[in-house]
Write a structure and sequence with these properties.
- By secondary structure, the chain is α/β, with parallel strands linked by helices.
- It has a single domain, classed as Alkaline Phosphatase, subunit A (3-Layer(aba) Sandwich), CATH 3.40.720.
- It contains twelve helices and 14 strands.
- A hairpin with a 5-residue loop joins strand 13 and strand 14.
- The longest helix has 31 residues.
- The protein starts with 5 loop residues before the first strand and ends in an 11-residue tail after the last helix.
C-alpha cells in the first residue's frame, strides 16, 4: 500500500442532487450514497459550471471555467496544451486509470498523456490492465424495452422514456463493463502490490436519458412516493425562451401526473443502479484494504429536468436547480479531518482539482480557479461567497450549434429551438449568493429567484424593489467574476 492517499472519482451523467434519499427524496433508493455521506460530507449546494456534458467536464477536470478556454459548447473540447487533473496526477507519481466516458478530448487522440490505463467500456486500450474478471451478462440485443401500461397511450418519441429493459438484452452494458473493469483493476493491485497510489476516474452513463433500466432497479421505486414536479413552464412568467420552445416541441402537454411519475420513477431506478455499482466499488476497496486510504468523490456533471416544467432531459442555457445543483459526496481518507453529514456551503465542481491537490500534496503547474474543499469539510464553515454556472452562445456563433440532429433525433426539440432564434439560445450566466439566484441573459430578460421562499423558482423577482439592493450587489459580483477569470493566460509561452 502506498503511503500517499488514493483518489477515486465515481461520476454519474445527468444526475440531480435531489435524487438521493438523504437529500429528502422519499422515493429514492441510494443506500450506498447515504452510508458514504455518514462517513464523509454531502454538499447540499454543489453546482456545475455548465448544464451540459462537455463544457462541464472540461471545467471540473481543469479547475477552470467553461469560458476560460472556450469550452462553452458540446463541440469544443480540450486542446493538447490544456491542463487536466489526470495529466497532473500522472506527472506527480500517481497511477492514473481512466474508465468510461470521454466527453472532453477528441476520441482519436492517444490517451497516454492522460493516464496509464484507459478502458472505454468495450475494449482495453492499454493491454496491461486486467484478466479474469467476470462481466455482467447483459449484451446488445433486439428485444425492446417493456413499456409500463400507464405509458402505452403517451407520446414517447421526444420524451426519452424507454421503460424496463428485458433481462440480458440491455443496451447499456457500458456501465457494467466500466464498473467491472474498475473492480478488476483493484483486484490486480491487491495481487501485485503497487508502489504508486492510484487516481481512478470512473465515469458512467447513468442516469443520462433515455430513461430505462433493468430489474431489480426498475421495480424498486415506489411510484406513489414520487415528489410533485415543478409546474409546466407555460404557466409561469419570466422563464427562458428555450424552455418554452422545448416544451412545445416535446409534446408532453397531454401527459397525466401518473405518466410523469412513471418517467421520474425510472430515472430514480437508474440512480439506484448507479448507487448499487458504487457499493460494489466501496466493498472492493474494503476487501483489499484500501478503503481508509482512499479519498472517494461521487458527483455528476450536471442534472436533468425529468418532467419539471413539463420538460425532459437538459438544456444548455437554462439554470434551474434540477440542472445546476448536482450531487457531491466526498469521503476523505482517514488522515483528513472531516465534519460528517450535510454541508450547506456554496461549492463548485471546479473546486475538485484543488481539493485533490491539497489532499495529495501535489502542486499543479498551472493557474486554476478552484478552491480546495478541505477546510470546509473539516469545519463545516463557509467556502465561497458565490457560485457560477454559464452557457449559451452569442449571435453569429453558428459554430456553437449542433446541426446534425434532425426530427428523427430525440434531441430535436432542444436543438431545433436553439437554431430558430438567438433569443432561445442566448448566452447567460447564473450567480448564486446566499439564497438568491440571479441569471443574466444577453438577449432576453434577466431572472432573480429567492430560493428560501421560492425553492421551485416559480416567481421571477427581477423587478421587485425589495430585492433591488441585493440585485445590484450580485451584478457587481458577476462583473468581478469575469474580470478575475476571463483573461486566462496559457502556461505555454510562444517563442519569438
Amino acid at each position: 500500500m502506498s503511503s500517499k492517499p488514493n483518489i477515486l472519482w465515481f461520476v454519474a451523467d445527468q444526475m440531480r442532487c435531489d435524487s438521493m434519499a438523504h437529500m429528502g427524496n422519499p422515493a429514492a433508493s441510494t443506500p450506498n450514497l447515504d452510508a458514504l455521506a455518514t462517513e464523509g460530507v454531502t454538499f447540499d449546494h454543489a453546482y456545475c459550471q455548465n448544464p451540459v456534458c462537455v463544457p462541464s467536464r472540461c471545467s471540473f477536470l481543469t479547475g477552470l471555467y467553461p469560458h476560460t478556454l472556450g469550452h462553452r459548447t458540446m463541440h469544443f473540447m480540450m486542446r493538447k496544451d490544456d491542463p487536466n487533473i489526470m495529466k497532473t496526477m500522472k506527472a506527480n507519481g500517481y497511477e492514473v486509470i481512466w474508465i468510461g466516458r470521454n466527453d472532453f478530448i477528441p476520441s482519436s487522440w492517444a490517451k497516454t498523456d492522460y493516464c496509464d490505463q484507459f478502458y472505454d467500456g468495450t475494449d482495453l486500450i492499454e493491454k496491461s490492465a486486467v484478466e479474469g474478471g467476470a462481466f455482467h451478462p447483459g449484451m446488445r440485443g433486439d428485444a425492446k424495452p417493456e413499456i409500463a401500461p400507464v405509458m402505452q397511450d403517451a407520446q414517447l418519441k421526444y420524451s426519452f422514456y424507454l421503460g424496463k429493459f428485458p433481462e440480458h438484452s440491455l443496451d447499456r452494458t457500458f456501465d457494467w463493463n466500466c464498473v467491472n473493469a474498475a473492480l478488476n483493476y483493484l483486484d490486480e493491485r491487491s495481487r501485485q502490490p503497487h508502489e504508486k497510489p492510484f487516481f481512478v476516474y470512473c465515469t458512467l452513463s447513468f442516469p443520462h436519458p433515455p430513461y430505462g433500466c433493468e430489474e431489480p432497479w426498475y421495480s424498486l421505486i415506489d411510484r406513489s412516493k414520487i415528489p410533485p414536479r415543478r409546474p409546466d413552464v407555460e404557466t409561469l412568467e419570466g422563464k427562458s425562451a428555450i424552455l418554452k420552445g422545448i416544451r412545445v416541441k416535446q409534446g408532453l402537454q397531454d401527459w397525466t401526473e401518473e405518466q410523469y411519475a412513471e418517467l421520474r420513477a425510472v430515472y430514480l431506478g437508474m440512480v439506484a443502479r448507479f448507487d448499487h455499482q458504487l457499493g460494489l466499488l466501496t466493498d472492493k476497496l474494503r476487501e483489499i484494504g484500501e478503503y481508509d486510504n482512499t479519498n472517494i468523490f461521487v458527483f455528476s456533471d450536471h442534472g436533468d429536468l425529468t418532467g419539471d416544467y413539463g420538460i425532459t432531459e437538459k438544456c444548455q442555457n437554462s439554470f434551474e436547480e434540477p440542472l445546476t445543483n448536482v450531487p457531491l459526496v466526498v469521503k476523505p481518507a482517514a488522515n483528513i479531518a472531516v465534519r460528517t453529514g450535510h454541508n450547506t456551503a456554496l461549492v463548485q465542481l471546479n473546486d475538485l482539482p484543488a481539493t485533490v491537490y491539497e489532499m495529495t500534496g501535489v502542486t499543479p503547474d498551472y493557474i486554476q480557479f478552484g478552491k480546495s474543499l478541505c477546510q470546509t469539510m473539516a469545519t463545516g464553515g463557509a467556502h465561497r461567497d458565490a457560485v457560477f454556472c454559464e452557457g449559451g452562445r452569442l449571435k453569429g456563433e453558428v459554430q456553437a450549434m449542433e446541426p446534425e440532429h434532425g426530427p428523427e433525433s430525440t434531441y430535436w426539440p432542444r436543438i431545433s429551438t436553439q437554431h430558430e432564434s438567438d433569443l432561445a439560445h442566448n448566452k447567460g450566466c447564473m450567480i448564486r449568493m446566499g439564497n438568491l439566484k440571479y441569471i443574466m441573459h444577453l438577449y432576453e430578460g434577466d431572472q432573480l429567484y429567492d430560493l428560501e421562499t421560492d425553492p421551485q423558482e416559480l416567481v421571477n423577482r427581477i423587478d421587485d424593489p425589495a430585492y433591488a439592493d441585493a440585485l445590484g450587489e450580485m451584478r457587481q459580483r458577476l462583473l468581478r467574476f469575469y474580470m478575475e477569470t476571463a483573461d486566462f493566460v496559457p502556461t505555454k509561452m510562444d517563442k519569438r
